[in-house]
Write a structure and sequence with these properties.
The protein is built from five helices and nine strands. The chain has 157 residues and is α+β, with helices and mostly antiparallel strands. This is GNAT family N-acetyltransferase.
Length: 157
C-alpha cells in the first residue's frame, strides 16, 4: 500500500488516549523508558484509515529547547517519506510553540536515521558515551552494530 502524507495531518493525543506502544517500541526498547518521557511529553500520531501508522513524542527541555524523544513509523509504511514528514511536522509544532532549537538523539548504529536527520538540517552536537549500555537492560544491535552511544543532533528553527 502506498501512502502519501499530502493532506494528512497529525493529531496530539490527550492524556485519556492510549499510547501507541506497538509503534513507539520500534524506536525505543522498553515500555518503562517510553512511559518516563511520554508522561510529561506531547505525543502526536498520524492516522490512515483510522489506524495509527506513525508517532512522535516531544519533550520540553527548557524555554528555548524541545527534544524529539521518539519517532516511529509502522514497518508497513516505511520507505514512503512518512518519517521525513513526521520529522518536519515535529519541527513545525516546536516552532509554533516558540522553541528556537529542536534536538533528537539516536544510536551510533542507526545509520538510516543519522542520514535522514542530517539531510533535514540537524547537526551532530554531542555524543552521550555508553548511554545505551548504562540505561538499557540488554544489549541493543542495529545494522549489526552494538549500540553503545547516543548521538545527539540539533537544529535551529
Amino acid at each position: 500500500m502506498h501512502l502519501t502524507p499530502d493532506g494528512v495531518t497529525t493529531r496530539k493525543l490527550t492524556k485519556q488516549d492510549a499510547l501507541p506502544y506497538d509503534l513507539l517500541l520500534l524506536a525505543d526498547e522498553t515500555i518503562e523508558i517510553i512511559d518516563r518521557y511520554a508522561k510529561d511529553g506531547q505525543t502526536y500520531v498520524l492516522e490512515a484509515n483510522s489506524q495509527i501508522i506513525a508517532a512522535y513524542v516531544l519533550q520540553v527541555i527548557d524555554l528555548q529547547r524541545i527534544e524529539i524523544k521518539n519517532i516511529a513509523v509502522d514497518s508497513n509504511y516505511q520507505g514512503q517519506g512518512i518519517g521525513k514528514f513526521m520529522l518536519r511536522d515535529a519541527t513545525l509544532k516546536a516552532k509554533e510553540q516558540g522553541y528556537k532549537t529542536i534536538l533528537i538523539g539516536t544510536a551510533n548504529g542507526a545509520i538510516k536515521q543519522l542520514y535522514l536527520y542530517q539531510k533535514e538540517g540537524f547537526e551532530i552536537t554531542s555524543i552521550k558515551k555508553n548511554f545505551f549500555v548504562n540505561n538499557y537492560p540488554a544489549p541493543i544491535f542495529e545494522n549489526g552494530i552494538l549500540c553503545k552511544h547516543m548521538i545527539m543532533l540539533e537544529k535551529q528553527i
